[in-house]
Amino acid sequence: MQPFATVLDWREGTISPADNVVVRRLSDMKTMYHDQAAMARMLKASDPVLYEVYEVHVPPEAGHLNHCCSIIYPGKVGDEYFMTKGHFHAVEGTAEIYVGLQGEGMLLMQTRDGQVAHIAFRPGVMAYIPPYWAHRMVNIGAERFIFLGVYPGNAGHNYGTIEQTGFARLVVERDGAPVVIPNPQAG
Ligand code: M6P
Ligand code: ZN
Asked: 149: Cβ below 6 Å to ligand 1?
């Protein structure tokens, strides 16, 4: 294939041209927030977009690099901040790099054998997510949280484990500030 370029608008979080834009709404995340009553109340009123991902497609092979830009909107379900679904890679021995571009976030990570980690994001923070670590981004600020992701072409997404067991840590608001706490429902 030939070299190519796209344009990343790092203030807006868009890539053009993008091959695909993933739009995730509240209703796509029904089971993922700890306060199910708050989720039900919010869904009765509306179904807002929680985040969008501008994706550039490359061949799904190990030598290639997927790259995408995500925008997580500000907000909470109950006391839990808007966040991505979070995933392991389908090919678990593949890493990822996240770079913060706008706003404030928290990266939650965990392994299958019970290790957990988190990294606070502001513009310029560049995190290395090693192979075998599941990852979820959370918007802990009042503005949009925008970040770039780069990962191997063959990595794929495995959402099943996180959907079933949740993340070991939650990011919730306490006394007006974000805190990372153990998830009492984590299985
Ligand atoms: C980042 C990357 C993407 C991922 C997106 C949203 O941009 O890791 O691969 O799709 O975040 O996260 P999720 O797929 O967990 O909803
Ligand atoms: Zn990933």
From this structure: yes
| pTM of this structure | 0.98
Residue 187 has pLDDT above 80, yes or no: no
What is the atom index within ligand 1 of the atom nearest the CA of 135?
A: 15
Distance, in Å, from the CA atom of 68 to the CA atom of 149, rounded to the nearest integer, reads: 5
Give the total number of structural domains in the chain.
1
Strand partners, 170: 181
**Backbone phi and psi for residue 2, each to the nearest 5 degrees, phi listed first:** -95, 150
Helices (H), the chain: 36-45, 160-165
CATH of the domain at 104: 2.60.120.10
Q: Tokens representing 50?
A: 């929680």
Does 1 fall in a domain?
Answer: no
Nearest-atom number in ligand 1 for the CA of 159 is: 15
Quote the domain boundaries for residue 23: 7-182
What digits encode the pLDDT tens for the residues 50-106? Answer: 999 999 999 999 999 999 999 999 999 999 999 999 999 999 999 999 999 999 999
From 87, 128, 135, 138, give the residue whose CB has the most ligand 1 atoms within 8 Å, as the site to mutate. Answer: 87
Closest ligand to 96 CA? 2
